[in-house]
Amino acid sequence: MTPGRTRFAPSITGEAHPGTLLAALLCWLDARSFGREFVLRLEDLDHTRLRPGQREAMLEALAWLGLDWDVLVLQSELGHQHEAALDALQAQGLLYPCFCSRKDRKASGRRTPDGGFAYGNHCRDRPMPSADWRNCEQPLRARLPDGRVALVDGSGTDLSQTPAVEMGDPIVRRNDGVIAYHLVVVVDDAASEIGHVVRGRDLANSTATQIHLQTLLGYAHPQYRHHFLLLETREQKLAKLHGSLPFGELKTRYTGPEFCGVLAKLAGIRETDAPCVPAELVSSFDWRRVRADDLLFE
């Protein structure tokens, strides 16, 4: 795998917001400071949530912040590779239909490391109803190895896990036909020869599952780093910032350089929030200066 590529892969099912732009900036600075290619991959596979103009809006937001990219990938154009991965998993006898609901998982009461409810692999022994997964109406899961993944990411966070037990076998194709996140992310990273994945820590607990899928499909493993999150108060609880300050409103309050300065100060990259452009931050960028704890954004 080419070690010289880092990717940023935002979902475009909604507007960019401060959390999106923070993640993009940190990923871009990591790539540029190490002289790596920067791949922008727009996750546009979920047709049930896409709206006209969302791709263009994400590109506008990133350019407004001052970011550029070496390669632009549309996830929806990789469908044949996603299907080939499902073919490969079925050929190994690793796919099975699942009849369990979210209510069933919640009833088990067993929590996952990220606070959700674990899937107990109850349908593992169910046979595929067809020789071709395309003819199956139920959600499909992939049977993971039962072994433990030993992993410490680039931030020093221990992500070691036995995902088949702690998380449960992942859904790889939903009942509406959309191929699911865990599978497409590893296929897309392999297709673009991504060597470094920089993303928010909300995705950290999915890493071990993705490593098992990479192994099953014969892919190499990227290096991972997970960074802090911007949080907001929602229903008297802290939650990941999402949608409260969409780009359409954000750009009426700030210029791109002004908001870049705000993000740089929040992240600990600079001591001042004076306006700047991302290129000005590259020469002094150091992950040791980036804050480790999550931050309430008001």
Summary?
The chain is of the alpha/beta class and 298 residues long. It has helices at 18-33, 54-65, 79-91, 102-108, 163-166, 181-191, 207-217, 247-253, 256-267, and strands spanning 5-8, 37-42, 71-74, 95-97, 140-142, 171-173, 196-200, 223-227, 230-234, 237-240, 295-296. The protein has a domain at 5-78 and 192-296: HUPs (Rossmann fold, 3-Layer(aba) Sandwich).
Protein traits:
alpha/beta; three-stranded antiparallel sheet; 9 helices; Rossmann fold; 298 residues
What series of H and E elements makes up the topology?
Answer: EHEHEHEHEHEHEHEEEHHE
Shape: globular
Spatial order of the strands forming the largest sheet:
3-2-1-7-8
DSSP helical segment count: 9
Based on DSSP secondary structure assignment, what is the total number of beta strands? 11
- SS-based class: alpha/beta
Main sheet properties: 5 strands, parallel
Strand content: 5-15%
Radius of gyration over all CA atoms, rounded: 20 Å
Within the CATH hierarchy, at the fold level, what is the topology of the domain at 5-78 and 192-296? Rossmann fold
Which stretches of 5+ consecutive residues score pLDDT under 50? Answer: none
How would you describe this protein?
The chain has helices spanning 18-33, 54-65, 79-91, 102-108, 163-166, 181-191, 207-217, 247-253, 256-267, and strands spanning 5-8, 37-42, 71-74, 95-97, 140-142, 171-173, 196-200, 223-227, 230-234, 237-240, 295-296. Strand 2, helix 2 and strand 3 form a beta-alpha-beta unit. The model has no long low-confidence stretch (mean pLDDT 92). It has a domain at 5-78 and 192-296: HUPs (Rossmann fold). It is built from 9 helices and 11 strands. It is of the alpha/beta class. 35% of the residues are buried. A 5-stranded parallel beta sheet has the order 3-2-1-7-8, covered by helices on one side. A 3-stranded antiparallel beta sheet has the order 4-5-6. A 3-stranded mixed beta sheet has the order 10-9-11, covered by helices on one side.
